[in-house]
Amino acid sequence: MSGRLAVVATPIGNLEDMTLRALRTLREADAILAEDTRRTRALCSHHGVSTPLRAFHAHTPDATVQALVDELRGGAVLALVTDAGTPLVSDPGARLVAAATDAGIRVEPIPGPSAPLAALVASGLHVGAFRFVGFLPRSGGKRRVALDALETASEATVFFEAANRLPETLAELAARLPDRRAAVARELTKLHEEVARGTLTELAERFAEAPRGEITIVVEGAPERDEPLDEEALVKQARALLDEGRRTKAVARDLAEAHSIPVRDAYALVLRATEE
């Protein structure tokens, strides 16, 4: 009989934010797979969990993933955790979960702390719908496409940012959307928790110098508009991405995702860009 893989959410700062079910799952598991065993050991010590720890991170080889799947097939119960929050949200656990599901092994989610959700509920913004995009691309065409999508999305956008890059990102957003409302959540659930709210212009001024800590940003969605999609603007954007050496299919895929249009329509626009 095969075992199961438990995907366990852990605190994003305050060690008391562990559910009873999460603690029971960690105690009953044969092993805990941790992104950073040092951080997880501190959590386990705080709660009296003595389950063996093993490292599982972005550099874990495929052979180890397969070995873990074999253990699960043999009846092992493994608990997957990340450094903070819910696994698979901007961390490497997806490889193991995908391999386990492909092998027909039960994957059991153990919900709990999540920085994106904590930032959303504290933002003070209207967030009937939202999208989470992890970290924005650092530069180039992919970043421009991501910012275009943020600018036009009707849903609120939630993303992470490194503290040292926060001033640059807020300045870039303020240049595009000076009056759009947003919130910067810093050190959520920790001693120096801060949630700053205001327009992107106000937030760019407030964080002109980089703060410390973990950062989650929430940007309110674009107001509804009735005008049709500006195809000429999309063709121009596609041409700029092609000029950077991007492949046609990749540009079409990015445009489709950024502007919520069918891939075939985006591909047609990219072909126009190559012909003009």
Detailed description of the structure:
The structure is a single chain. With 276 residues, this protein is of the alpha/beta class. It folds into 3 domains: 4-113, Cobalt-precorrin-4 Transmethylase, domain 1 (3-Layer(aba) Sandwich); 116-219, Tetrapyrrole methylase, C-terminal domain (Methyltransferase, Cobalt-precorrin-4 Transmethylase, Domain 2); 231-275. 43% of the residues lie in helices and 18% in strands. It is built from 11 helices and 10 strands. The longest helix is centred in the middle third of the chain and has 13 residues, at 140-152. It is globular.
Shape: globular
Biggest beta-sheet profile: 5 strands, parallel
Largest sheet, spatial ordering of strands: 3-2-4-1-5
- Beta-strand content bin: 15-25%
Please give a handful of descriptors for the protein shown.
single chain; 276 residues; alpha/beta; Methyltransferase, Cobalt-precorrin-4 Transmethylase, Domain 2; five-stranded parallel sheet; five-stranded mixed sheet; 10 strands; 18% strand; globular
Q: What are the SSEs and their pairings?
A:
Blueprint: E1 4-8, H1 20-28, E2 31-34, H2 37-47, E3 53-55, H3 62-73, E4 77-81, H4 94-102, E5 106-110, H5 115-122, E6 130-135, H6 140-152, E7 156-161, H7 166-176, E8 181-186, E9 194-199, H8 200-206, E10 215-219, H9 231-243, H10 248-259, H11 263-275
Parallel strand pairs: 1-4, 1-5, 2-3, 2-4, 6-7
Antiparallel strand pairs: 7-10, 8-9, 8-10
Q: Short description, anyone?
A:
This protein has about 280 residues and is an alpha/beta fold. It is built from eleven helices and ten strands. The strands form two sheets. A five-stranded parallel sheet has the order 3-2-4-1-5. A five-stranded mixed sheet has the order 6-7-10-8-9, with helices on both faces.
